[in-house]
Amino acid sequence: MSRRFCISGGGTGGHFFPALALLECFTEKGFPCQFIGAERGIERKLSHLIGVDKEFLKVHPFLGRSAADKLRSAFSMILSSLRLYSKLGKVDASVVFGGYVSLPLGLASLLKGIPLFLHEQNSVPSTTNQLLSRFAKAIFLSFEHSKKYFPSDKTIKTGLPVRKALLKGLELSKKEARESLGLEDRDTLLVMGGSQGASFLNQLAVEVFKKTQLQGIHITGERDYERVKQTYDGMPILVLPFTERMDLIYRACDVAISRAGASSITELSLYGIPSLLIPYPYAIRDHQYYNAKEIEELGGGFVLRQEETEFSKVIKLVEKLFSEKDELSKKIQTFSDPQACQKIIDHLQNILLAHP
Fold first, then answer.
1. What are phi and psi of 302, to 5 degrees?
2. What's the CA gap between 244 and 109, in Å, rounded?
3. Range of lowest pLDDT (133-137, 282-286, 321-325)
4. Pick from 157, 304, 169: which is nearest to 249 by CA?
5. What is the pLDDT of residues 8-34, one digit of tens each?
6. Which one of 74, 126, 218, 245 is at 20 to 30 Å from 85 when CA atoms are compared?
């Protein structure tokens, strides 16, 4: 009989999409699964992508909130944990991807005696994963930097799970991807700010495209979409608020300017896209900066802190990315692992067999 798994991850795309990728891999191999997310998270909006039983909890973030909001968050976590405790049934193991969304499943699993596994996407771990790490059977990692935050005997570097649709996009040629998007077959710059967009990057992108006249793809997020789209009138720029066809986007592009979330970095790496990474300056524990530094140390791109981002410096680095793209592409590709999902499943099965 197949083992049953419960997976939780969401709030933002950085937690949700890796969880979704592992979920897809589990179901493809015939393992029954259920998914736990948050009503207020991106996973609720994209629930049509979740092809298994799913439940969305009324939980709220804790860090960086007022005292009243923290109290509400703690209360929602306790209620949601108790609610899940009564519903977990015959689950054989739980896998959580960190963030406030995952804490109820982690707590309920511990109370129920269900083996708990963690995946930490970022170089600096979430508070949820640090809290749960002492009770977890194993902690799967994306970045070398994060090893120092966890018990060394529990960490396993697997890389970040990537959705099957993105892996399939690797089979496309750049020409095919560009034709599908209505672009010319020439050098293309991608600018994106993550699942929620980034106003700073949006403004920077407009200046870069006007200065360089490059063909580009600009993913703005919903908030700035209309304003930015009007700015590009007549220019060879494909402007999107959000897209589920990131396989086409990545394959069509040569270099990128991006925030430094773990999913974005992994996907850029998978497609060998050298990048100028400008970490979100208010990311908890500055984790995006340390994510980006690991790529820079591999030789796959450059890092600029937002407060140090001068336009002339950005232009110079973008030009360097294009002029050295072949060499940089090979180096950034060494970060991602297309087999991350399979590695996680193999480790889960081996650990569960050894400690039934």
1. -130, 155
2. 32
3. 282-286
4. 169
5. 998 888 889 999 999 999 999 999 999
6. 126
Q: Are 40 and 66 in contact (CB under 8 A)?
A: no
What is the SS3 assignment for 157?
A: strand
pTM exceeds 0.85 for this model: yes
Q: Which amino acid is at 248?
A: L
Q: Which of 116, 127, 160, 146 is nearest to 17 (CA)?
A: 160
Q: What average pLDDT does this structure show over 243-263?
A: 95
* Number of helices (H), then strands (E), in the chain: 15, 13
Q: Is 33 helix (H, G, I), strand (E, B) or coil?
A: strand
Contacts of 310 (CB under 8 A, 6+ apart): none
Q: Confirm if 149 and 125 have CB atoms less than 8 A apart.
A: yes
Cα–Cα dist 102/340, whole Å: 20
C-alpha–C-alpha distance, residues 279 and 292, integer Å: 7
Average pLDDT rounded to a whole number, residues 332-340: 95
Question: How many angstroms separate the CA atoms of 198 and 222, rounded?
Answer: 10
Query: Rounded to 5 degrees, what are φ and ψ at 83?
Result: -65, -45
- Ramachandran area for residue 113 (φ above 0: left; ψ -120 to 50: alpha; else beta): left
All residues at 6 or more sequence positions from 179 whose CB lies less than 8 Å from its CB, including other chains: 185
